[in-house]
């Protein structure tokens, strides 16, 4: 309202000046000269007004919404809220997290793909965003690459390979022997079809030649999956530390390995999958920020610069570490390349393990 009153005041003064000025020149000009002079003056006035409006409208001038396509409380939501709090401080503008859960994250993704490309609707998700585009090629309602602009990769977290305490195995090698001796006795569980945990479990079973013998039971969320794992209804799971670590610390689950390239400082006595005999096994759930496609480059650069500062913060790194994650910032261009390489890797796992949508 203040800007409106300001520009109205300017307009009234300019109009008064205009009439006075035009009254003088009308006495000394032809009709043709008058028209050309008028058009030139109007053009100059338009440029001046446009510049003033641009200065008043530097992004962001209103609240930003970050869409999280999963339910509150999970790994994606927790990481998104930590990031949103810091982005609010960097941009000096309100940042709201909006949960739009359903269909393995595709409901929220479709909403963002259709949103205005003005930088006020952003998208925060994990690697499942890229995996979905490979699994649901025939039914997906958006293009996970063409309909989005990668802004920044922010964090990543290794998974915990855990089993119920009654499973008589203290390491991965022993567990593989159990599976091969009594395949019908054991089952894997995953928090969702196409999740990082799902693909990691599928890769493990493929590498041990057990894909056709050990079922992977699909759940809608980590909470119900972990509930059955803790209760002994299922045998094993690969899951982000945020949700599994408390159960491991409480003795309700036994950690056999972690899927990162190095041991986790939160579980220093638990070996990696590489140390457990799987030399090429490395799996992370990674997290990033996207916008709808065709968002202006200057807005992407501003958000990317803010992301870089946030992920370099010692406070943020410490907070992420406590949740079982690590800061893994990549700028917009590098994030796009990383997505391409990860999708190629996921496709190999999907093909090798014959993962299909039922």
UniProtKB/TrEMBL annotation:
Entries under PANTHER family matching the protein: BLR1237 PROTEIN (PTHR42928:SF5), TRICARBOXYLATE-BINDING PROTEIN (PTHR42928)
Assigned protein family: Belongs to the UPF0065 (bug) family.
Highest taxon of source: Bacteria
The protein's name: Tripartite tricarboxylate transporter family receptor
InterPro entries to which the protein is assigned, alphabetical: BUG, Bug_dom1
Keywords for the protein's UniProt record, in alphabetical order: Receptor
Taxonomic source organism: Pigmentiphaga humi
Lineage of origin: Bacteria, Pseudomonadati, Pseudomonadota, Betaproteobacteria, Burkholderiales
UniProt-listed Pfam families: TctC
